Amino acid sequence: MRSKFEEEIARKYPELSYEQDKLIYTVPAKKRTYNPDWTVRDGVFIESKGKLDRETIEKMLLVKEQNPDKKIYILFQKGNNKVRRGSKTTYLEWAKKNGFEAACWQQTRGEIPKEWLIKDEN
Predict the structure, then answer these.
(1) Buried (b) or exposed (e) across 16-35, using 16+ Cβ within 10 A?
(2) Domains in the chain, CATH or no CATH each
(3) What angle (nearest 5°) sits at the alpha carbon of residue 63, between those of residues 115 and 54?
(4) What is the pLDDT of residues 75-88, one digit of tens each?
(5) Cβ proximity of 46 and 73 under 8 Å
(6) Strand (E) positions, the chain?
(7) Given 3-state DSSP classes, what are the helix, strand and coil percentages for the chain, each rounded to the nearest 5?
(8) Contacts from 33-40 at CB under 8 Å and sequence distance 24+?
(9) Dihedral-angle region of residue 41 (phi above 0 means left; psi in -120 to 50 means alpha; beta otherwise)
(10) What SS3 class is residue 70?
């Protein structure tokens, strides 16, 4: 029992089962907004990330899925960091696996990849 009140009910009604069943429910999604860090041009953005935590991973996957007409590049400060302690997957590997083009600020010597800044004529 979780409370004195529940204990009182259990004493008074011993024929009732306590927390025997589980009912499934879904929490309705909340509409959120995402502000990309940098706008390159209409529909093309760069997200600069120092740390890629679970919350950010979930957010970026949802944003990508729900905005398929947008191009989001990810520029990691340290792309070889692991996505979590004990993982073999780096930030750059995670990005590639999930369909994001990504680069590492350290590896690009502090530059945004030039191809990200060039307008694609296709």
Answers:
(1) eeeeeeeeeeeeeeeeeeee
(2) 22-117 (3.40.91.30)
(3) 100
(4) 999 999 999 999 99
(5) yes
(6) 38-41, 44-49, 71-76, 101-104
(7) 25, 20, 55
(8) 34/59, 34/63, 36/72, 40/73, 40/116, 40/117
(9) beta
(10) coil
- Give the Cα separation of 5 and 11 in Å (integer): 10
- Kindly report, residue by residue over 33-52, the tens digit of the pLDDT: 999 999 999 999 999 999 99
- Of the two residues 4 and 70, the one the predictor is more confident about is 70
Q: Measured between alpha carbons, how far is 53 from 30 in angstroms, rounded to an integer?
A: 20
DSSP 74-98: EEESSTTSBSSTT---BHHHHHHHT
Cα–Cα distance, 13 to 17 (Å, whole number): 9
**Which residues are 19's β-sheet partners?**
none
Only one residue has tokens 């010597």, namely: 109
